[in-house]
Specification:
Layout lengths: L2 E6 L4 H14 L2 E5 L9 H7 L8 E4 L2 H7 L6 E4 L18 E5 L8 H6 L4 E2 L13 H15 L18
Parallel strand pairs: 1-2, 1-5, 2-3, 4-5, 4-6
Helix pairs in contact: 1-2, 1-5
Length: about 170
């Protein structure tokens, strides 16, 4: 079972860099759907990902249709959107196979027509819609991927870390 974070036409390099760092730390694959609002060699994106870029498996897709064609089981494609009616915590992410979490562009989200084609796949992070339009993209990606990992018992992730010279002992 592999988890995937998918970014539809991301605009801001810092968000993508932060998400790449989260992917490196969680063994999550990253998918970027073009066009991108930045160059992948952008210094801000590299800074946000720090020195973890070689630890992230990144796949580029020419457009949304190209990405969807690469997904073997559409029922495990989750459209993360404030317009969904089902909470992200109400989904069981423990079934075998790959799980894809698709996040929209920072300014406009996912295309409405695409959302209407897959309404049963849409999930939402609860928020106060009166106060904000949306949570930060990199925060949203971390919230959702860690719920999936929690349900999956954090496969391949360290649960405890100690230093050789632990100051607490």
């Amino acid at each position: 079972m592999t988890n995937h974070i998918v970014l539809f036409e991301p605009l801001f390099p810092a968000n993508t860099g932060n998400i790449a760092r989260t992917c490196a730390g969680t063994n999550t694959e990253l998918h970027l759907i073009r066009p991108l609002g930045f160059s992948t060699d952008d210094k801000h994106m590299k800074r946000a990902g720090l020195d973890y870029w070689d630890k992230v498996k990144i796949t580029y897709h020419d457009d949304l249709q190209d990405f969807v064609a690469s997904v073997a089981d559409i029922s495990k494609l989750y459209l993360v959107s404030k317009f969904a009616s089902r909470d992200y915590t109400d989904v069981d992410y423990t079934s075998a196979g790959d799980h894809y979490f698709l996040f929209g562009k920072e300014t406009t989200g996912l295309p409405e027509q695409f959302m209407q084609r897959y309404p049963e796949n849409a999930i939402r992070i609860p928020q106060n819609d009166d106060n904000i339009r949306a949570l930060n993209l990199s925060n949203s990606a971390a919230i959702v991927i860690y719920e999936a990992l929690r349900q999956q018992s954090f496969p391949g992730l360290a649960r405890v870390h100690t230093y050789h010279f632990d100051k607490l002992k």
